[in-house]
Amino acid sequence: MTTILRLRPDVAACDMDDDPGGGPGARARGEPGGGRASDARGSGSGPGPGTGTGTGTGGMVLLDERAGRYWQLNATAAHILRRLLAGADRDGLADELAAGHEGVTREAVAADIDALVEQLTNARLAEVVRAEE
User: What letters, b where the CB count within 10 A reaches 16 and e where it falls short, cover 88-99?
Assistant: First the structure.
């Protein structure tokens, strides 16, 4: 499936130097006190990251400037988001990630990618511009 994803105009992204929890499985997390959408939580306040999506290999922070909340993505979720924002194909990305982690199936990775996209869109941080089967 091809999913074209973009961050909403009022969302700023900043790469993090430290990985908040890498490894297989895409997760977004925040500080206590925020709302919760599946594995993703936002915080009532947070750092003031710069704009742009960066090209780092660690985690990422997304700042919802409209709501004043931030979301912290682990390295895997940040990698997936960077690749989707750059136009990567979901199925190809799932194949790549599954091949890099022994015992992780392509189907599980594809489900994680879909769940991350759903979390980001439900939180109004990103929007799907086009999705094709």
Answer: bbbeebbeebbe
Q: Which helix (H) or strand (E) holds 91?
A: helix 90-99
Q: Give the Cα separation of 21 and 70 in Å (integer).
A: 17
Q: Centre a 10 Å sphere on the Cβ of residue 122 and count the other Cβ atoms it contains.
A: 12
Question: Residue 132: which H helix or E strand, with range?
Answer: strand 126-132
Q: What is the mean pLDDT of the chain?
A: 76
Alpha helices in 35-131 (DSSP H): 75-85, 90-99, 106-122
Q: Which residue has the tokens 């759903």?
A: 118
Judged by average pLDDT, the poorest of 11-25, 34-48, 52-66 is 34-48
Quickly count helices (H) and strands (E) in the chain.
Answer: 3, 8
109, exposed or middle or buried, with CB in 10 Å at 0-12, 13-18, 19+?
Answer: buried
**Entry pTM:** 0.69
More confident residue, 31 or 70: 70
